[in-house]
Amino acid sequence: MSDPVVLFLNLRRTHLEHGAAVEAAHRLGFGVALIADTVPAGLPERVVRVVHKVDTYDLAAVDRAVDAVAAEHDVRGVVTWSDRDVETVSRIAERLGLPAPSVGAARIARNKYLMREALAGHPHTIPRFARITTWDELAKAASDIGYPSVLKPTSASGSKGIFVVRSEDELRPAFDELMRYTRPEVDKVFGDNPNELIFEEFLVGTEHSVEGFVVGGEVVVAGITDKETTEPFRLELAHTFPSSLPPAVQDAARGLAATVVSAIGLDDCTFHLECMAAPDGTVKLVEVAARVGGDFITSHLVGLATGVPFAENVIRVATGSAPVLGTAGPLFSGVRKIMADKAGVVSSVDGVVDALAVPGVRHVAVERSAGASVALPPQDYMSGTLGAVIAVGDSADAVRATLARAVDAVTPRIS
């Protein structure tokens, strides 16, 4: 049998992100066996030993690819880098006897309604909520919960389909749009629960995420990220690591993570928990994912600030080892996205060289090249992100200033 490999089920969308994952496996002495819908160019063949291109929503096709990999390679772990494959990873791990959450726990982590139901015994950790599949259910929930509130899909990812509803006048348009959007023919991610929404209390405060691992029932927190989002659709705009929250609030966020992980039953996995910190210092759950955080948080920011690449710990946990934590300082890191201000077709993204010249900038990623079509929410939640800038500095404020200067240097031209 060949050298040990870790099975990757799909990759992150940018070469910076998936490159960090592949290189982490290589540094730890593993090859990669990739099963994916699309295979990016430029993957190093000496590390990515085998590739199976299949429709990963087709579970039978995935099973055949897994069997083929396991027949020829020593598979030590299985991991995914986004929400859509979390349940499939647990299925694969169960078949091969590898570390991962149970299929039941993975299912809860993929559904915001089931997630909140699992925490019903800890009402202080969650907003008031209701599951919605019809207009009548929504009208009743709005009467009970009131405004402002949030209406969103139970199983989307990447901030897709989040509507802040501030009055009764905004309720029906948000519902109609989400009924149109949350169908498998629009996005396959809704195949298991089409037109299932959650309506919940609007949480006031600042947004954060807890990045960590759970191994043998023990929660290990690598750090907390401070987040900025857009209005009104709550797209993630910027992140800074480590958090500048007061120590007591950070302790509350870590406590929330332990409670949530235990209630859902997550184990032997990476987690990314999003939460809101209220002005009074209390922290409530937005959602938890049994996978890494995106937007370069865990591919770059944690490693830049702590000195230990987060992706290496993802591989360690997936292969049955404990994570190795770095220090919380002295560096801070951050990312800020380059966003389109209108729909159309990208003519060019100018100023990248100027942005790279700003002291502290480490990367400028351009995701939409000339000729790419761009749409804005609610028509589309992804294509309006044109790129991102990653930077480091001695303080959170210094990083934010660097990112603002670099993003201002970039001029997207959309016709």
Name the overall outline. globular
Q: Determine the CATH topology of the domain at 4-99.
A: Rossmann fold
What is the level 1 CATH name of the domain at 4-99?
A: Alpha Beta
| Helical segment count | 12
- Report, as a whole number of angstroms, the end-to-end distance: 54 Å
Q: Give me the secondary-structure category.
A: alpha+beta
Helical coverage, percent range: 25-40%
How are the strands of the largest sheet arranged? 13-12-9-10-11-14-18-16
**What is the average per-residue confidence, as pLDDT, rounded to a whole number?**
95
- Taking pLDDT < 50 over at least 5 consecutive residues as the criterion, the unreliable ranges are none
Strand content: 25-35%
For the record, the CATH architecture of the domain at 4-99 stands as 3-Layer(aba) Sandwich
Summarize the biggest pleated sheet.
8 strands, antiparallel
Radius of gyration: 21 Å
Please give the oligomerization state of what you see: single chain
Please count the beta strands (DSSP E, at least 2 residues each).
19
Protein name: Biotin carboxylase
Organism: Saccharothrix longispora
Domain ATP-grasp: 116-319
Pfam families: ATP-grasp_4, ATPgrasp_N, LAL_C2
Describe what this molecule looks like in 3D:
Pfam families: ATP-grasp_4, ATPgrasp_N, LAL_C2. Keywords: ATP-binding, Ligase, Nucleotide-binding. This is Biotin carboxylase. The chain is of the alpha+beta class. Among the domains are: 4-99, Rossmann fold (3-Layer(aba) Sandwich); 128-201, ATP-grasp fold, A domain (Dna Ligase, domain 1, 2-Layer Sandwich), CATH 3.30.1490; 331-415, Alpha-Beta Complex (Aldehyde Oxidoreductase, domain 3), CATH 3.90.1170.50. It is built from 12 helices and 19 strands. Strands 13-12-9-10-11-14-18-16 form an 8-stranded antiparallel sheet, with helices on both faces. A 4-stranded parallel sheet has the order 3-2-1-4, sandwiched between helices. Helix 3 (86-96) runs antiparallel to helix 4. The chain is globular, with a radius of gyration of 21 Å.
